[in-house]
Amino acid sequence: MKTYFVYILKCADERYYTGITNNLERRFYEHQTGLYTNCYTFKRRPLELVYSPMFYDVLQAITFEIQIKRWTRKKKEALINGDWGKLKKHAGCQNVSHFKNFRKEGE
Known about the structure:
Elements: E1 4-10, E2 16-21, H1 24-33, E3 48-51, E4 54-55, H2 58-69, H3 73-81, H4 84-89
Antiparallel strand pairs: 1-2, 1-3, 1-4
């Protein structure tokens, strides 16, 4: 059965890179050695693999990768740390213009 990995790398500049692969060891090696000079991680080495769940369905893996890429840094860190409480907290809209951030007059 074919397996897929959604992975998060922590870069030397403290940024996160999220990707998908069917061979995690090979893909991490490619990132770490700078095989592709136009890759986001090339100038951000060394890298640390901080999260890598396995999937059997490529569409689920792709969907999860896209979802993570849209997340804030705080939400990604909650996922990496397995802090489900913080993950849920950061799941809501964080925009200051969001209705939950408005107070009624007199509050």
